[in-house]
Amino acid sequence: MSSTECIVLDFDGTFTRVDDEAVPFVAGFREGLRARVGEIADTRWDALASRVEADPDHHGWEYDGIIVAPSHADPYIMTTTIAQLLLDELGMTVGARTEILQALYRENYPKSRNVFRNDARRVVEAVLSSGVPVFVVTNSQTEHVEAKLRELDPRGLERLSVRGDARKFVIAEPERSLGTGGGHAWRELWSEVPEKAEISGLSRPMHLRRGHYFDALTKIWDETRTRPENTLVCGDIFELDLALPARLGARVHLVARPQTPEHERRAARTTPGGSVSQELVGLLERLALPG
Ligand SMILES: [Mg+2]
After folding, report:
1. How far is the CA of 180 from the centre of ligand 1 (A)?
2. What's the pTM?
3. Residue 161 is inside which H or E element, if any?
4. Confidence bin at 110 (pLDDT 50/70/90)
């Protein structure tokens, strides 16, 4: 197998313990929802949560009417999924719903605590000392993630580049990669990405054409003069973080949580060049790095 020349890491849930850090986010999100739609936000919440939990595959984080991540992937997504059902019951259009959910996410993300996985510092230091270019590509805002990383304070942090607002959840055509800055190689690669993939154990298809995420990745590959085949992408949600890069030929590593759906673990394990671990330190084993 060719060597790893570029490492791309997700942030929330990959470096952090989302179940712990999301508690104030969930409280703030529900408060904001109540302020917008009234008491019904509380009276319907438990029933809608049970509906999601009874059939998690059928529900998920919808963006423009398409499920883009599994409902049980993390508390951020579970909260969004339940709120989405409520707004739907209230007769809101997809556009109005998306706008409210995005605003609630943005308003409340800064409230989330900073709870790193126990092995986060050690793993970040080890990948940074490997000399391979390392990037964090996240849906969160760059400055929030950089502030959290400064608190973690790993050796070599100045070599870590954070790319926020990646919008991995948006199913759309890329902009940068197909323009003059991209070139024909990316156009051809993008043309080979199918709209959807069937995943064993998941009753709905997984959508792959995440153009904004594709742009973020090709920008990194252009800057570092690397290729998908020499890149390892690590994240905690296969559908959101890894399905597209795997399709592009990158190697992928899923850092799971106890609640990670089995279909996500299986998808990562059975993808060519894919692997799974419960702890972040599994990434070092994958890269054969000391630490
Ligand atoms: Mg994540």
Report:
1. 31
2. 0.91
3. strand 160-163
4. confident
Give the distance (Å) from ligand 1 centre to CA of residue 237. 6
pLDDT digits (tens, 9 = 90+) for 44-82: 999 999 999 998 888 988 888 899 998 888 899 899 999
How many Å apart are CA 259 and CA 239, to the nearest integer? Answer: 15
pLDDT tens figures, 249-269: 999 999 999 889 899 999 999
Q: What is the pLDDT of residue 182?
A: 57
169 with 240: CB under 8 angstroms? yes
Centre of ligand 1 to C-alpha 234, Å, is: 9
- For ligand 1, the distance from its centroid to the CA atom of residue 92, given in whole angstroms, is 28
Q: How far apart are CA 53 and CA 82, in angstroms?
A: 10
Quote the ligand 1 centre to 241 CA distance (angstroms).
7
Domain ranges of the chain: 6-16+114-287, 22-111
Q: How confident is the model at residue 228 (pLDDT cuts 50, 70, 90)?
A: very high
**In this structure, what token pair is assigned to residue 91?**
């007769």
**Is residue 191 packed enough to be buried (19+ CB in 10 Å), middle (13-18) or exposed (0-12)?**
exposed
* Angle between helix 75-89 and 45-54 (nearest 10): 110
In the predicted model, is pLDDT for residue 274 greater than 80?
A: yes
Could you tell me the distance, in angstroms and rounded to a whole number, from the CA of residue 17 to the centre of ligand 1? 10
Superfamily of domain 6-16+114-287: HAD superfamily/HAD-like (3.40.50.1000)
Q: How far is the CA of 85 from the centre of ligand 1 (A)?
A: 22
The rounded Å distance from CA 76 to ligand 1 centre is 10
Measured in angstroms, how far is the CA atom of residue 172 from the centroid of ligand 1?
20
CA of 184 to the centre of ligand 1 (A): 31
Q: Flag the least confident range among 62-66, 227-231, 274-278.
A: 62-66
